[in-house]
Amino acid sequence: MSTVRILNAKEIERLFHLDMAVAAVERAYRQKSEGAGQVWPMVFHEFQHGVADLDIKSGDLMAEQIFGLKVVSWFGENGEKNLPALFGTSLLFDRCTGEPKALLNAGPITGLRTGAAAAVGAKALARPESESLLMVGCGHQSPYLIAATLYVMPGIRRVQVANAKNPARAAEALPALTEKVAALLSACGAERDYTVTAAADLEAAVRESDVILTATPSYEPLIRAGWVRPGTHLSCIGADMSGKEELDPELFHTAKAFGDDAAQCFSVGECEKPHAAGILGSLTEIGDVLTGKAPGRQSPAEITVFDSTGIALQDLASAAVILEKAEQEGAGLTAEL
Amino acid sequence: MSTVRILNAKEIERLFHLDMAVAAVERAYRQKSEGAGQVWPMVFHEFQHGVADLDIKSGDLMAEQIFGLKVVSWFGENGEKNLPALFGTSLLFDRCTGEPKALLNAGPITGLRTGAAAAVGAKALARPESESLLMVGCGHQSPYLIAATLYVMPGIRRVQVANAKNPARAAEALPALTEKVAALLSACGAERDYTVTAAADLEAAVRESDVILTATPSYEPLIRAGWVRPGTHLSCIGADMSGKEELDPELFHTAKAFGDDAAQCFSVGECEKPHAAGILGSLTEIGDVLTGKAPGRQSPAEITVFDSTGIALQDLASAAVILEKAEQEGAGLTAEL
């Protein structure tokens, strides 16, 4: 029988912090570039269009000696049953023996690893002297993106939060969001000096920001190409399904595109529409920038876009580091399978 | 947090028996035919050719209100580490909410559900008056196939076991195999009256058998077309990967082909080579025979072949019935995820 460690949401929240997520995601991108990490075909199923779906993302992380999968199920009508709409469940295996090793509630991993992805893109591609950050979207993901970016770019002093459709929503969300950002930074002992305000006007906020993060469920451009000033970096995580977009495809006439997985960016990411329209021919994978195989930003005036669609290796690398810590501490439950 | 039930190998061996496996597999085939069960694309990965591989089979079983997956990893060099080469791990979810429900060691399920598949094919397609059974292959799977077929076809009186390459191996394997067959039948309270002997000559045994089961890892035909007498039924479970075969493709000039999943049978099953050679144009799915949508055997002289490649729904239906029994008994471990 195999011994399997079971880590629930509470344990993972206790064990896993921003600094670990940033390191894990950066490692995952590097390993993909070095051929030490492999993404297997994704299984996607819609139980009912717009009501319930699921995906199974799996892959192999040789350097961490694990392989595994994450099942994300979204059941939009769960609220009526007082249940969360989203469940994330990860299963990890030992890469030397194929033996099951761990079952994890991947819910608390997703926020941190997604925030870390946007931040790793910003750190690699934004101008190092960047001082102003704009977060477009004020939902569940936003504090994770802001905190992770503040963590990796301590020079950022001003954070604005915008809701593209309804500016009042950003102001309403601000107190809880600010508190969560502070808690995420403090949980990993990071002290940062910054202000957070709500943006009254999206265009004006875009025009004055060095780094822009987007995390919305939009199916139409929110940011016009003409608004983005030279030297801006954008990390976009909203587009993760065919048809979704947050940026004006015209932006890619001048902006340089980067992504986590080229094929996935062109099929479901922010790059899907500019690619289909023939505006964008190719993109550079972020892992190749991190390992020095490909150049990143080449001038202070360049506009850079990082299209983060989400890959299994981010989850696997995060799960691996959580599992290592849990094993050291003897945390969670172990069961004979 | 979700409550997940964890069922290990010992619990599953205690809870799950032949009668349940036969009923579950038959239900799975019917549900596929009725559109109430759906198989999602399989993920297959070879870590190292001939040394280590894995597959992830997933699907949706609406009637049982579950969806889920099974990961089977095979690491051929595990023997050196005193570990089994094969691990099977299943994860089940509630189809109404997407919530994780159970983690199961699928190892003890696989033998029973695979034996049940061969038997369900035989029961549906063999001549009801069949009395003689030949098992080609004397490995781990064989007792499950024999016992399940004896269970569903109580008229069978004579069982022969053959090893195609080395007849002595069948004689050596006989005592343990016979004991296991008896234990499997007795575990579900089934009494059958039969003899089991080792076949000295494969051709002679084929020529005198009503029902033939094959479960070998062969990549070349073991049974010649000319050996199979009119009226014979063959259930073949060995071919589960491109290139594998146990029957002479020429047999399909006269035999009528049935399978669990047409696309999978043509890509990895016993039907792959006769289909590629243009001998076999189409096959009937067993579920359509069970639901009466398509005819099965149409005359006592017909030769019928059931190609069982293994589908996720067999595992899901088996896991569902195990989980239901475990919940009633409060068996296994429950963990808050």
How does this model look, in words?
Chain A is an alpha/beta fold and 337 residues long. Chain A folds into 2 domains: 3-109 and 313-336, ornithine cyclodeaminase, domain 1; 115-310, Rossmann fold. Helices cover 34% and strands 28% of the residues of chain A. Chain A has 10 helices and 18 strands. Chain A has helices at 9-15, 18-33, 107-125, 142-152, 167-187, 202-207, 262-268, 272-276, 286-290, 312-329; strands at 3-7, 37-39, 43-48, 52-61, 66-75, 86-94, 100-105, 132-136, 158-162, 195-198, 211-214, 219-223, 233-236, 245-247, 256-259, 284-285, 304-307, 333-336. In chain A, strands 1, 2, 3, 4, 5, 6, 7 and 18 form an 8-stranded mixed beta sheet that branches. An 8-stranded parallel beta sheet of chain A has the order 10-9-8-11-13-17-15-16. In chain A, helix 5 (167-187) links the parallel strand 9 (158-162) and strand 10. In chain A, helix 3 packs across helix 10 (312-329). Chain A is globular, with a radius of gyration of 19 Å. In chain A, 57% of the residues are buried. The model of chain A has no long low-confidence stretch (mean pLDDT 95).
